[in-house]
Specification:
0% strand
């Protein structure tokens, strides 16, 4: 079996998110395309509506979702695969109360996740910088958890394909 370990993840930075506002279907299509390399990290319209209903993200304005909401949804879509709903709420609260503004926090999360994915698929752990806030440590560890889960999921998907081809 040929091993397909490489995974490239390049998330749009905050300044690259659509600025005009997107309708719900456009939001899910856009974000699912961006998150596709992570495998089962997906959003549906129902999920997004529930996140609004449960106050995890702000209500859309005239049914349009802003870059702030898109950034929040990227974080939620990624984190929900490794965190319980209660822990996800705490993580969002931590991010909202951090010393970073939303733009910097989102861009930092993208950077952490991309680096963690690269480390997980190369098979070498990332060095852990010594000077970090509690929020940065949480994001670092969350990114690693997501990256290693994606790596394991990809391994088992490849094994399933191999078994189907042999069977």
């Amino acid at each position: 079996m040929e091993e397909t370990r490489e995974l490239v993840l390049k998330l749009p930075r905050y300044a690259e998110l659509p600025a005009l506002g997107l309708y719900l279907e456009q939001v899910t299509t856009y974000l699912n395309e961006q998150l596709a390399p992570l495998g089962d990290v997906r959003l549906t319209g129902t999920m997004v509506s529930n996140y609004v209903k449960h106050h995890l993200i702000e209500h859309p304005v005239r049914k349009l979702y802003s870059p702030d909401q898109l950034a929040d949804l990227v974080f939620i879509a990624v984190a929900k695969n490794v965190l319980s709903l209660a822990d996800l709420r705490v993580a969002i609260r931590i991010q909202q109360n951090s010393r970073f503004n939303r733009v910097d926090a989102y861009d930092y999360f993208c950077q952490e996740l991309e680096a963690a994915v690269q480390a997980a698929f190369i098979g070498q752990p990332r060095p852990f910088p010594t000077v970090r806030t509690a929020q940065q440590k949480m994001l670092h560890q969350l990114a690693l958890a997501v990256a290693y889960k994606a790596s394991v999921d990809r391994f088992f998907a490849a094994m399933g394909e191999l078994e189907n081809a042999e069977g």
